Amino acid sequence: MKKDLLSLLDLEKDDFETLFKRAIQLKERYARGILDTLLTGKTLGLIFDKKSTRTRVAFETAMIQLGGHAIYMSAQDTQISRNEPAKDTARVLSRYIDCLAMRTFDHALVEEFAQSATIPVINALTDSFHPCQILSDIMTIIEYKGGYKDVKVAWVGDGNNVVNSWINAASVLGFDLVVACPENYQVNPRIIDMASLEAKSNIVFTNDPKDAVKNADVVYTDVWASMGEEDELSKRIIAFEGFQVNKALLSGAKDDVMVMHCLPAHRGEEISEAVLEDKNSVFWDQAENKRHMHKAILESLILGN
Predict the structure, then answer these.
(1) What is the pTM of this model?
(2) Please, what are the domains in the chain?
(3) How high is the pLDDT of residue 140?
(4) Which of 131, 164, 242, 294 sits CB 3.0–4.6 Å from 62 for a disulfide?
(5) 211-223: buried (b, 16+ CB within 10 Å) or exposed (e) per residue?
């Protein structure tokens, strides 16, 4: 039976643990020059409606290094752009490829593909969720902190797709998460309902970034205006005053705090130049780990592990 990864609520706790363990193992083996070509002869399709650097290259290199092939398809170059129904495209692609990763705006489109496809479908980012990003981020936390169970993660910024996936992860794994968003830019109540947060005390919401980062082990931020919202940036810069992750804000966190950003970063907006260029920064390890986590995800879904 095929399995999709559309949001982190699709995973049980054991699924998370298996992916973390396997991704770290694959990373270590690759560093030793061991090539795990378990997906030889398999093909990954990538349909991207949104621009991408890290996610696209991470998926392509992950598939290649596992012995398979990746085919990149801009949505504008497919019959989707000429209004072919998603269910038709999904059925046809299921006859050609072994897995499909989609990066688009409307989450409902990915869900529609998954319903009609007979191959695994992966959400490579929608306006609602970014599950693969958070899996690789928690992998990075495990590498640096030895685990995630006793870690406090503070989100400072917009109530966007990335924090939605953090909420999903915390709801399953149980680590402490404090989400600080400005008024009018909070997390959509639907996301809170989906994660059944009324029964969970480990996830807290606030409008105060200083309160959020207090004694935090990890501070995470993202751009204030996501793709498709760029025309709102000038308004958001005003609304997000005080939400920049800088040395002053981090003074309330733990001395060994990890600062994370899914990138690309807007230096001087949501994060200061000094923090981004700090010698102890983990941003680049965080970005690299997407490749190894994508390997674990692809191997699991395609081979049914």
Answers:
(1) 0.96
(2) 8-129+290-303 (3.40.50.1370), 133-286 (3.40.50.1370)
(3) 98
(4) 294
(5) ebbeebbbbbbbb
